[in-house]
Amino acid sequence: MIQRSLLILTMSMLAVASTFATHGTRMVGFSARTVGRGGTSIGMFDSPTLMMTNPAGIAFLSGSVIDANFSLMVPHTHFSNGLNDTKGETNYFPLPGLSYVNHHSENPLTWGIGVFTQGGMGADFTLNHNLFRDQNGSFIPQEYHSKLAVMQGGPSIAYKFTEKFSVGASAHLVYSQLEFKMPYSLSPSIMAGVINPQTGMTFGNLFAAPPAQGGFGYTEVTAAANMKELTAFGFGAKIGLAYAMNDQLTFGLSYSSPTPLTYKKGKASMDMTAQLNDAFGKAVQGYLIQNPGATQQEAQAAVMQQFGQMGIDLSQGVIAQYNLETKLKLPQSIGIGTAFKATTALRFAMEMEWVNWKTAFDKMSLNLSSGSSSNINRMLGNSGSFSIDFPMEWKNAITLRVGGEYDFNSDFTLRAGYAYGSNPVPETTVFPVFPAIVENHVMLGASYQVSQPFVIHAAYELALNQKGNASSNSAVAQEFNNSVSELSENIFHLSVTWMLQ
Q1: Residues 479, 80 contacting (CB under 8 angstroms)
Q2: At a CB cut-off of 8 Å and minimum separation 6, what does 255 contact?
Q3: Cα-trace Rg, the chain
Q4: pLDDT for the residue numbered 23
Q5: What is the residue range of 17's domain?
Q6: Would you say residue 131 lies in a domain?
Q7: What's the confidence (pLDDT) of residue 22?
């Protein structure tokens, strides 16, 4: 019953939680209380969100507690290349969380259950692309969209072996959604359909060969792609250690397992109309050069006949619908943290975390099947099923978080913090709708105890503007060569805590 309720709650919360990148795709903190002091929680044992950072710490809570958290993220994006100097759309992303911990001081076993917005990324742009133009040569703006939303939740337990030491674990169900819409470019070698069995010449050879050799001279081929309705379930485990040396000094250590995700039952469309129209135009111009006396109409008819001889019926178009399955992995991580109580009113915390992006986000595997276009199938040399890898090539990251809090009196607490996370996205694969490049966050927060059991927490988080300069040879597409993607974020956090005893 608990698992079913958790699943329903997770899915309903995810419906409004299309998240955006913070450190990589991960949130810095999961409640206003912890965000206000830089996201530190691994070594400071005072919040149910320890179930996401160090489950052993819930054994040191002062009693049973319910936490409800809500954040509003407002990212600001910008992209520039040779054709664009454009701000992304302003989106507002609600990020909820809800948790409960059952703790009794006389019982060494503490347990809890919660649902948390783990992270994600997303952006929306309308951009010009060299290939997409009308008959007059004017640009036809293209939509660039992405969304990766991740939530997780489930039970956690912690056991206090001594008054100073506890061990804990979380077993979390992970639910994710994924969408992409943008021009998608690949090497012409993807077009493996054979034109001439005697020579082995393929459509890829034709599209890549220079015009002097009778080809089109493309170094990449592009389709307007739209991938949607992708959902995935996975399982993630967390284990942690918590140690209170004395009343002033505490330490925490935690590990989060990798989470493989297979997104199923997705739909994808591939529209190669612009690419084929451009190739057709090149072929017509080539025919006119070789046949100076021919008219435009004669050249077009001749080229259509040539395509027909290659097995391409241009009257059928080049738009295909596919079933789509995608594989991705959330990274494993190791974190260590400590907290120090300088006085009864003043506390400091710091922590460091290593995130294994290199293994998790090396590539995104796309498996397409049941392709509906005979023309595209002919050019690709398959029956409508094929696999491709989208390059990501992320690097491992180190995150550092520091913060403090001060009790002005028994009712009011003020917090401040800073978090740094090294940018995991390399120059070869940075592009505008996956701009997980922010490194520096500054935070302010406060708590007010409305009554004995009820506390309100608020925090403001500013992710400072970060530029990602793409290399001169982007692994994603040529349109991103030497481009610049920018990201900053304003995030507003509100939490309420209800102490049950």
Answers
A1: no
A2: 238, 239, 240, 332, 333, 334, 335
A3: 27
A4: 62
A5: 2-272+318-499
A6: yes
A7: 59
Total Cβ atoms within 10 A of residue 112: 26
Angstrom distances, CA of residue 354 to CA of 160, 221, 335: 26, 38, 6
Digit-coded pLDDT (tens) for 407-438: 999 999 999 999 999 999 999 999 999 878 89
85 is a domain residue: yes
Report which secondary-structure segment, H or E, holds 76.
strand 65-80
Q: How far apart are CA 388 and CA 146, in angstroms?
A: 18
Which of 334, 277, 274, 268 is closest to 307 using CA atoms? Answer: 277
> Which tens digit of pLDDT belongs to each residue from 359-408?
999 999 999 999 999 999 999 999 999 999 999 999 999 999 999 999 99
Beta carbons of 23 and 352 less than 8 angstroms apart: no
Domain assignment of residue 203, yes or no: yes
Q: What are phi and psi for residue 232, nearest 5 degrees?
A: -145, 145
pLDDT score for 18? 40
**Residues 6+ away with beta carbon under 8 Å from 330:** 25, 118, 150, 174, 234, 236, 258, 259, 261, 360
DSSP characters for 283-312? HHHHHHHH-TT--HHHHHHHHHHHHHHTT-
CATH code where residue 206 lies: 2.40.160.60
Residue 436 in tokens: 């997980």
Q: DSSP E strands: which ranges in 93-248?
A: 93-102, 109-127, 142-160, 165-186, 194-196, 201-202, 221-244
